[in-house]
Specification:
The protein is mainly β.
Length: 296
């Protein structure tokens, strides 16, 4: 493998099509697409300062490297890339890329990042920014912190372990999501989903977990979670804390120590299709006809 060390490059496509090369201590200054169409390269202790650094590349390893703010839209259409111990400051970094491995990576501004990507593994990472992971699939997260709204909108086949998501509207329009041993904090969690599971989790979500088919929640806490499970079918829910309110579940089973308010509109759902096992229900509001007043 060739080697380039301790060099400062400027200019558009300055190392276009580079192959079989180790780059160490490199600064890529002003100039778009410095490593476009590269293959089998390793980048270490380096800095990307300008736009589109890694487009249409294959077999890339990056370690201890910084992508500065203007290195935006940096990694598009690239296959088989591993990034470790690096600081990624620019938005829109990953698009339509595949086979991505990230470990000990910090996204300072992950706005519109990781869109339409496939086969993603992230461990020990921090992410800050809205719309992370949109329409991506085959995603594995372990010890990942995400702060930013609308995370993983439209994603498929997502597995999460020991992670924290502070995110409004996380996991909307998703298929096949399983979250283990994690904390989720944000309004309107996981609407319009199919086959989503939360195991040993802490969840705080105003009007969360609505419009879902196949929802499983086991050994989890729903903290200050109200108007939950509206129009959810095939429920399998066992929580260890009070649910503030439950509204119009379609079918399945809910087990909870306490429900603050149970709201059922029999003109919208069939109450007999949902089994509710609960020691204490504060208020039952049952509508059997839209013209009737609620009954306590």
């Amino acid at each position: 493998m060739n080697s380039i060390k301790n060099h400062y490059f400027t200019g558009e496509r300055i190392l276009y099509g580079l192959k079989d090369t180790e780059l160490t201590g490199i600064t890529f200054g002003q100039g778009e697409s410095p490593l476009k169409e590269a293959g089998h390269i390793a980048v270490k202790d380096s800095i990307f300062q300008w736009k589109y650094p890694l487009w249409y590349d294959t077999d890339v390893e990056v370690d201890s490297t910084t992508f500065e703010t203007m290195a935006r839209s940096g990694i598009w259409y690239t296959k088989n890339i591993k990034i470790t111990n690096s600081a990624l400051q620019a938005p829109k970094l990953f698009r339509r890329a595949s086979d991505i491995v990230l470990d000990h990576v910090h996204f300072a501004n992950a706005e519109e990042t990781m869109w339409n990507c496939q086969n993603i593994k992230m461990t020990n990472c921090q992410v800050n920014g809205d719309y992370f992971g949109k329409d991506s699939e085959n995603i594995y997260l372990d010890h990942v912190s995400i702060i930013g709204n609308y995370a993983f909108d439209g994603a498929k086949n997502v597995e999460v372990h020991h992670s924290t998501l502070i995110s409004k509207d996380a996991f909307w329009n998703c298929d096949n999501v399983t979250v283990y041993d994690s904390t989720l904090d944000g309004e309107y969690l996981a609407w319009n989903c199919k086959n989503i599971k939360f195991i040993n989790c802490k969840i705080e979500s105003n009007q969360g977990l609505n419009y879902v088919d196949q929802l499983e929640v086991k050994n989890s806490s729903l903290l200050h979670t109200d108007l939950a499970f509206e129009y959810v079918s095939n429920l399998d829910v066992e929580v260890v804390t009070k649910i503030d309110s439950v509204k119009n579940p379609i079918s399945g089973k809910i087990v909870a120590p306490e429900i603050g308010e149970l709201i059922i509109d029999a003109t919208k759902v069939d109450p007999s299709q949902t089994q509710i096992i609960c020691d204490k229900i504060g208020i039952k509001t049952i509508h059997s006809d839209l013209n009737q007043k609620p009954e306590d």
